Amino acid sequence: MNRKTLRIAALLLVLVMSALMFAGCGQKADSNGDGAKKYTIYSDKAFPPFEYLDEESGEYVGLDMDILAAVAKDQGFEYEVKNEGFDPAMTAVQTGQADGMIAGMTIKPEREETFDFSDGYFEDGSILVVAADSSISSEADLQGAKVAAKTGTVSADYTESIKDKYGLTITYFEDSPSMYQAVMTGAAVACFEDFSVIGWAIKNDGTSLKTVGDVVNPGYYGFAVKKGENAELLELFNAGLANIKKSGEYDKLLAKYGY
């Protein structure tokens, strides 16, 4: 082999090694040591009893967290949860930062345009919420009122749908506790919230609020992925959900939170 041939061979070796190095850098950082994929799941950060920070342990707990853990164990997949908030979770899935999200997210046609959903895992709906000493007894009493809403939620959608009818002024909040605080302090006269969530807050957190009337726009919560992507994760979730329902573990998890 002449000197020119050696130089060409060396150059080719450098190019191959560089390609391999860049290919390695381009791999997603969601694989464990044995090459199996580790999913990144986003969730809300203050939506008890579905997800909330346990101050003693410093960890996020709740029904969504328990269901996800049970499904992952049943199906044998690994995951990392990032509790960033409801709106950030939706954005993370839409932009590809997250493989999926579980955050008390109601399945509805408008969301199905950008998300693929699992089978429903919990049924809920919105209800009118006012201060404990409020004289408001129906939606009609909201005429011209300032109301609070949590960004990106079905309850916010419902509030917007009756805005013109009652002449509402809507102030938006990133999380439920901030929204509750606005109503309790009088910054807003009311809000709409998921019935199970506000019921938990009133019963367990001593929140000085009360519900008025009946549940509106009922629907099912679902695990969500970006539309057209992560079909395998959605299949795993559905299969695991079906199995834990069949085994009775799902009912035990519901009972843990009083459902």
Write the layout of secondary structure elements.
Blueprint lengths: L2 H23 L12 E6 L2 E2 L3 E4 L4 E3 L1 H13 L2 E6 L2 H9 L5 E2 L13 E3 L4 E10 L14 E5 L3 H8 L1 H4 L2 E5 L2 H10 L4 E5 H10 L4 E13 L2 E3 L4 H17 L1 H8 L3
Parallel strand pairs: 1-5, 1-6, 9-10, 9-11
Antiparallel strand pairs: 2-3, 3-4, 7-13, 8-11, 8-12
Helix pairs in contact: 2-8, 2-9
What are the salient characteristics of this protein?
259 residues, alpha/beta, three-stranded parallel β-sheet, 9 helices, 39% helix, 26% strand
Structure description:
The chain has 259 residues and is an alpha/beta fold. The chain is built from 9 helices and 13 strands. The protein has helices at residues 3-25, 63-75, 86-94, 154-161, 163-166, 176-185, 195-204, 231-247, 249-256, and strands at 38-43, 46-47, 51-54, 59-61, 78-83, 100-101, 115-117, 122-131, 146-150, 169-173, 190-194, 209-221, 224-226. The strands form 4 sheets. Strands 10-9-11-8-12 form a 5-stranded mixed sheet, sandwiched between helices. It has a 3-stranded parallel sheet with strand order 5-1-6. Helix 2 (63-75) crosses helix 8 and helix 2 runs antiparallel to helix 9 (249-256). The model is unreliable at 1-29 (pLDDT under 50).
Short summary:
The chain has helices at 3-25, 63-75, 86-94, 154-161, 163-166, 176-185, 195-204, 231-247, 249-256, and strands spanning 38-43, 46-47, 51-54, 59-61, 78-83, 100-101, 115-117, 122-131, 146-150, 169-173, 190-194, 209-221, 224-226. With 259 residues, the protein is an alpha/beta fold.
